Amino acid sequence: xxxxxxxxxxxxxxxxxxxxxxxxxxxxxxxxxxxxxxxxxxxxxxxxxxxxxxxxxxxxxxxxxxxxxxxxxxxxxxxxxxxxxxxxxxxxxxxxxxxxxxxxxxxxxxxxxxxxxxxxxxxxxxxxxxxxxxxxxxxxxxxxxxxxxxxxxxxxxxxxxxxxxxxxxxxxxxxxxxxxxxxxxxxxxxxxxxxxxxxxxxxxxxxxxxxxxxxxxxxxxxxxxxxxxxxxxxxxxxxxxxxxxxxxxxxxxxxxxxxxxxxxxxxxxxxxxxxxxxxxxxxxxxxxxxxxxxxxxxxxxxxxxxxxxxxxxxxxxxxxxxxxxxxxxxxxxxxxxxxxxxxxxxxxxxxxxxxxxxxxxxxxxxxxxxxxxxxxxxxxxxxxxxxxxxxxxxxxxxxxxxxxxxxxxxxxxxxxxxxxxxxxxxxxxxxxxxxxxxxxxxxxxxxxxxxxxxxxxxxxxxxxxxxxxxxxxxxxxxxxxxxxxxxxxxxxxxxxxxxxxxxxxxxxxxxxxxxxxxxxxxxxxxxxxxxxxxxxxxxxxxxxxxxxxxxxxxxxx
Length: 557
Fold this sequence. Notes:
The chain contains 17 helices and 19 strands. By secondary structure, it is α+β, with helices and mostly antiparallel strands. The longest helix is centred in the middle third of the chain and has 41 residues, at 340-380. A 6-stranded antiparallel β-sheet has the order 2-1-4-5-6-7, covered by helices on one side.
């Protein structure tokens, strides 16, 4: 239940703090006074699209906050998302600045607009002043039936099944259209893979065999160089080893004379060990190295095959392995697409599931239609439509859709003895408004939320009917919190609580907004703003008598 609403710098409101109670609350005032601003503020708190134009002129941002007492369902929702509030309260806040930026919070924690919208469905049901217009929108009547009957989960299941069926059908149709192309493409892939069988490339092989092939191709150069190195190190006259030995002997003769020579002597001995070791390694390499002609030919053939296939398929030799893997995977996929039987079966199964769910939904809709039409017919009797009747006609749609196989149409007879006609053909705007109100009242009777909001849904009615509407809203207020923006005193008189919204000095007004009301011969005559501006002063008080030509109010442009 809505417990408080705080508004800062929103439209024409500078600062407003309201406390709400349970029961039926009426919000009254002249056109332009700001009644619907309260509803607009709540809609923004529930995730509606923002517009910087709603920021009060001269301000930098609007700040809106609403507090709710919550039930167990909402409490569980908050706990699941770790957004539990204090003392069992829910606090929604939203700000919007002149740059178009919007920020939202749930119990002090930043949140997304989708979360606000999800939460709002559990908090309130809003019936707007143009509800009777939306009644005539294509598909709206079916939506109302589903909402009344509590069928939204089933509708969601049908919508999901529809999506799966259409996607499977689309895949099947595309496969049929591409079948010839797919077959040709698959044949090319198979030729490629057949060619790859002889080579059977291995990841990283191209670099390894090239290195080995290069080494074998230069076998003679390697052997010759190693033999020369061996001779230079140890076998030739004046070999490196012999020269180092001479140097060691020479330094050794005088190393005891100068300590600095001891270091040189040590280095020369280290050099001798290195030379000796290198000579052994060269000898070992020559003993173990032999030219493998068969291996060389094998490598030569494999490299040539790599080069041949690379040229044939316009790729680099080292890319053949990756290309083979890619084509293998693609061929498996293409074979799946070529299997029209499997795709057909998948689409058929998806359609069967859709048909099953849509058929079950249709049965539930027809049950709900009987209950809905009886409830609305009963309410119509109290709205100056005695003897009238309401029918929710559920028939087979021209074609299945994401919402099932049904077409829904509301049929109305405004009075006894009048044949029921489509709601779209009801000529009287007042009659349409009353029917819309009957639907709204019936809908709210089944609502599971704690707060019901009616925004001028009583437009187009008056007299005894208005009094009946007031009593209906009062009845709703016995079980749920009901807020109603109304112009009708008959409706407002039935409220347990009453807020009157008025203009005062300093308020912004638009051309045509009511600034004050004169009572002349027991008739109320509104005095409207001649142009956009700000109320500078109100020169009279409630109950004052005024003469012709008297100054009533002043405005600043």
